[in-house]
UniProtKB/TrEMBL annotation:
Entries under PANTHER family matching the protein: HTH-TYPE TRANSCRIPTIONAL REGULATOR LEUO-RELATED, TRANSCRIPTIONAL REGULATORY PROTEIN
Name assigned to this protein: LysR family transcriptional regulator
Entry keyword DNA-binding: yes
Homology family: Belongs to the LysR transcriptional regulatory family.
Organism: Massilia cavernae
UniProt xrefs under CDD domains: PBP2_DntR_NahR_LinR_like
Length: 306
């Protein structure tokens, strides 16, 4: 006989409730927005804790055992109280909230996407404030799990499994060159591209984790001179060092080109678009404020033109 657990995870009450109502593991998992494997694991934990099968597969679905029926009134009563009393007061009232939202994003995100998001946030949640975190990709999952950060926004590489994510839009790459380069016209040749030295932006500091790492899948080795975690360094470096170039997201290049020191040309090799996504931790998937913020972010950036 399996050893009974000494501590009960209160999240299992919702699992018990869903199984009582649905009598089907798949439908119960869908009701709680869980995977079927996670639901099966939760049922196993319930069985171990109560030392009883609780729900038995029959021709008419998962039927509760006498022990489960004995517990059902308590479980349904608890969930009824939560729905009737607690959740009524748990909604997020954006217009009156004074919450500070914390976002993980790069300096590119701050320059290009944050102004648009803040503009909308100030309209619908005028008393809320925003804090931006720039942390190592390896620390993002922990920041989301602890609540230090509400969302991580961007084209983030090597994100750990277990986080929820939602694609917001896609972007293409272009190449930045010094505006004074007379040997590069409106276009650049493949030979010129690979002959020049490159700047790579990588949050981890490793060139293989760079935002433009897809360039290296082309098959020709680049001459990488500088690897930096900061996008804002790029135009300053190219302005003072005309032999350097960088392949960056198009919208960022457009912003830099407005300052006249650099200009953008189409990258002479075919590159796939990259996706901008928002990431959050399952712990806050049903949090009212986090859910509201995710919906706002989706509305602000959904359908954003290239």
């Amino acid at each position: 006989m399996q050893q009974q657990e000494t501590q009960f995870d209160l999240n299992l009450i919702a699992v018990f409730d869903a199984l009582l109502r649905e009598r089907n593991v798949t439908r119960a998992a869908e009701d709680l927005d869980m995977s079927q494997s996670a639901m099966s694991h939760a049922l196993k934990r319930l069985r171990v804790f109560f030392n009883d099968p609780l729900f038995v597969k029959t021709g008419s679905g998962m039927q509760p055992t006498p022990r489960a029926l004995e517990l059902s009134s308590t479980v349904l009563g608890l969930m009824g109280t939560i729905r009737a009393d607690l959740l009524v007061h748990a909604g997020f009232e954006a217009h009156a909230s004074r919450r500070q939202f914390s976002l993980c994003m790069t300096d590119m995100g701050e320059l290009i996407f944050l102004p648009r998001l803040v503009e909308r946030l100030r309209q619908v949640a005028p008393f809320c404030t925003v804090r931006v975190l720039q942390i190592s990709p390896r620390q993002i999952a922990a920041a989301l799990e602890s609540g230090e950060a509400d969302l991580a926004l961007g084209s983030l590489h090597s994100m750990p499994e277990g986080l929820f994510q939602q694609q917001l839009f896609t972007r293409s790459f272009v190449t930045l060159v010094n505006k004074g380069r007379k040997d590069i016209g409106d276009t650049m040749t493949v030979e010129q591209f690979f002959a020049m030295e490159h700047i790579v932006v990588s949050l981890s500091g490793k060139k293989e984790d760079g935002y433009d790492s897809v360039v290296d899948e082309y098959g020709t080795k680049r001459r990488i001179y500088l690897t930096t975690p900061h996008f804002l360094t790029v135009p300053l470096m190219i302005e003072r060092n005309p032999d350097l170039i960088a392949t960056v997201p198009r919208e960022l290049a457009s912003a830099f080109a407005r300052y006249k020191a650099v200009r953008m040309v189409e990258t002479p090799i075919s590159l796939p678009h990259f996706a901008i996504r928002q990431h959050w931790h399952p712990r806050f998937h049903h949090d009212a404020a986090n859910s509201w913020l995710r919906k706002l972010v989706k509305e602000v950036f959904e359908g954003l033109p290239e």
